[in-house]
Amino acid sequence: xxxxxxxxxxxxxxxxxxxxxxxxxxxxxxxxxxxxxxxxxxxxxxxxxxxxxxxxxxxxxxxxxxxxxxxxxxxxxxxxxxxxxxxxxxxxxxxxxxxxxxxxxxxxxxxxxxxxxxxxxxxxxxxxxxxxxxxxxxxxxxxxxxxxxxxxxxxxxxxxxxxxxxxxxxxxxxxxxxxxxxxxxxxxxxxxxxxxxxxxxxxxxxxxxxxxxxxxxxxxxxxxxxxxxxxxxxxxxxxxxxxxxxxxxxxxxxxxxxxxxxxxxxxxxxxxxxxxxxxxxxxxxxxxxxxxxxxxxxxxxxxxxxxxxxxxxxxxxxxxxxxxxxxxxxxxxxxxxxxxxxxxxxxxxxxxxxxxxxxxxxxxxxxxxxxxxxxxxxxxxxxxxxxxxxxxxxxxxxxxxxxxxxxxxxxxxxxxxxxxxxxxxxxxxxxxxxxxxxxxxxxxxxxxxxxxxxxxxxxxxxxxxxxxxxxxxxxxxxxxxx
Length: 482
Hints:
The chain is an alpha+beta fold. It contains twelve helices and twelve strands. 18% of the residues are buried. The radius of gyration is 56 Å and the shape is rod-shaped. It has a domain at 306-474: 2-Layer Sandwich (Heat Shock Protein 90). The model is unreliable at 430-436 (pLDDT under 50). α9 (350-367) packs antiparallel against α12 (443-453). The two termini are 48 Å apart. The strands form three sheets. The protein has a five-stranded antiparallel β-sheet, with helices on one face.
């Protein structure tokens, strides 16, 4: 039940039940008193008739009458007063009632057994031969009745207080069970979670607002734990990257230092000097490439960094982007086959897309088998180069956009390593690279991030003992308003 509905019901109970209870007590007491009144009324008439036989004697209303018999009748529950016909008190068991009381008071309520809170009162005239002698007044005090009323009044007050206490204690207990206890439990869970502890709660099974709050807390806990794990992984990755880059930079620096110190030797031949200088230049270039990869990776990791894409003609741009790689491939010991068949407009960042092609070709040289062919293609979706691997053609399934394809021949990559290759610093097999060289392990990750910032996708396919292909897909240019 929702807390709002539950609170409304509790409010209704707190307001209505005391009223119903009090009214029920009133009805019960009133019915009890009605029954007692009827029984007492008839009892008093019986008692009254016995007294009337005594006070109805005309002798009592004459001068110097003897009231001894009347005095024997009177007690704490019975009071008798005799009046003369003119309104004077002739006799009264109440010593305070004397003198003239007036005819109006004396004649009021004749022949009527009047019931008051504390007494029954009856008046009746006394005649002798048709002449009015006087009037007697009999009061039957309701001592037991008054005591009973007082006792029951305290009983009603105590019952009412007890009823209120039971209702409010019940409501307080229910409020504690419905609100205070689960809210306290949820607050305790939050404190434990704030200290880094994983919290499991049963509150989410509730069908009220607290259950919804607990579900929200659990969802928040999952998201925060994911974020914590991600931040921890990123921190470990950064630490590993710093250590790896530091180690990788130390190796060429050591070589540079060694060759630089050797150049100070005056006994070197011109050929040795030239060789040492070339080694230094090569090592510096390698360090420069590693630092550029590190800077680019750090830049792409920033959430504030976005690529400013410009619309280019596909045929013109990719013809230029794929050119001039043949001499480099020949230097590395490979034959390059280039195929370009792109038309239409594409939104690209020219410099970063050129970096993608450089990275992919660099990996193809590093891990390809020397003396084989490297394939480089830029084609519209629906086309594929003739030299493409058979397993490559099934991956070119887009209906729009274009593909950048780089493939090499070699030992291939095990399937369990393919997904990890796009992770930073991961290299599947260093032994496949040229002796003494290794990359930063950031190239494919940088490629993936750049392509994704173009709105595209990257896929790596490989078959052992055949070769490897990387496929980058780019969407067509939709225009600024699309």
